[in-house]
Automatic annotation (TrEMBL):
Disordered, as annotated region: 1-19
Reactions this protein catalyses: alpha-D-glucose 1-phosphate = alpha-D-glucose 6-phosphate
Cofactor(s) required for function per UniProt: Mg(2+)
Keywords from the named record: Isomerase, Magnesium, Metal-binding, Phosphoprotein
Family affiliation: Belongs to the phosphohexose mutase family.
Any one GO BP annotation for this protein: carbohydrate metabolic process
Domain of life: Bacteria
Gene Ontology molecular function terms on file: magnesium ion binding; phosphoglucomutase activity
Protein name: phosphoglucomutase (alpha-D-glucose-1,6-bisphosphate-dependent)
Keyword Isomerase: yes
Native source species: Paracoccus laeviglucosivorans
Amino acid sequence: TRILTVPTQPIEGQKPGTSGLRKKTKIFMTPHYLENFTQAVFDAIGGVAGKVLILGGDGRYFNDRAVQVILRMAAAQGAMRVIVGQGGILSTPAASNLIRKRGADGGVILSASHNPGGIDEDFGMKFNGTNGGPAPESVTDKIFARTQELTEYTILEAGDVNLAQLGEVVLGDMTVEIVDPVTDYAQLMGELFDFDAIRNLFTGGFRMRFDAMHAVTGPYATAILEGTLGAPAGTVVNGTPSPDFGGGHPDPNPVWAKDLMDAMFADDAPDFGAASDGDGDRNMIVGRGIYVTPSDSLAVLAANAHLAPAYAKGLSGIARSMPTSRAADRVAEKLGIEAHETPTGWKFFGNLLDAGRVTICGEESAGTGSDHVREKDGLWAVLLWLNILARRIEPVQQILTAHWAEYGRNYYSRHDYEAIPTERANALIQRLRDISGDLPGQTFHGLVVESADDFAYLDPVDGSQSARQGIRINFAGGSRVVLRLSGTGTEGATLRVYLERYEPDASRHDLLVEEALAPIIAAAEEIALIREFTGRQGPDVTT
Ligand code: VG1
Ligand code: CO
């Protein structure tokens, strides 16, 4: 084996977004593209010589090739050991767990998460640090800076490593350790939850449907739910990962997981439904005849977490991303614990979790997690729900109704305008920045603006600042609109409009969400001129 030094040039646009670098797969496959970004990551962390890394991805198209390239580059640059999931597969939370458990110096995760996969769809890559969490902005800024000055990279001249076989193989001077992707993760779940109680639930005839959406959680869910917990065979559907996720969007929401919604609203619906995304860090929760919004799920999980062994001592605090509904804040208030509001993206929770300031975190985009790893964790959320259901023996519907009666209901919806011209999206946001100072006191569709700003975050742990994280428009009475541009898309810009109405009165907790939010939607249009700027009559996706 020889080490090759390959001359290269900076490639434009290798800027990590909300969650790593995401591009069309074909872009990632162009010569030097993957290699350049990998080199930039290695350089940004001070090289990989003598280090231990975790490596794996969600199995989407090009995962298998990319893993081999990264292994050869790590070997060429003196890494001591790379621990890879069998077949190059690791879910995002499982990778986070392995980094922590094995005391690794970090990990590379190959995924574009909920974005579709395939040669004509999306691919992605992100780096997680020693705590198991996504690299903070200070590191992603360094990575981006390195992509703009690269002149060469090094790679070992060698054939592919056989990743099908568990065990250790040598690549140059580096050890490649191939591990089962599920084992360590499944063990961790067993430590957190009351598996006996959940097993009894299933023995008692409780029925569930878990839709893995042809993505990475299939093997994890099958092993844990059907294997360890004794759920009947067939509980997990679409459980075999495929490189293009069966041609669908592996995005667990009522639009892309419509089959699950249909099953849960049918006459013979099971008791509980759930789904996860491409890389296994998101979750969707559906009861019989009722969809649980991720924001409500976060609040309910926080309020009931003490029913699971790992959280029996109580929570230190709760964090949510800024656009996530404020339902969780009310739970924190009642529990007398800290509540934090962070910018979108899991990387902003890392410091709070490391410092022990929060135990549970969540995002409106179907992400929930805790201090057990440093990523959101789809199956974790499902298991916490199951643990709660096993202890409360109540339908999901009843748990939600009781929660709303106690805390009030935060009606919530997100409208996405996808692939709109970037200049128009930027202009819309810029205009809101410009007028936000004048909004307070004005009335739109009967709603009085109380405050408006472009959210800026000051990290209370390390003092780092992140500005321009989205426009917040708060109305009197606890309702609000948030507007921001997505940082995970690969085509034009995606405008996200987050709509929230707080309703304390229990006699008004069973409205249709669209009806409950109608005044907020109208006010958002009047303030932000969405139709005019986007040229669209309505959102592409409503969740
Ligand atoms: C979206 C979500 C955000 C989430 C991110 C990564 O980002 O809104 O909450 O953390 O995806 O999730 P954006 O910038 O497009 O709004 V995943 O499961 O795609 O890694
Ligand atoms: Co994901």
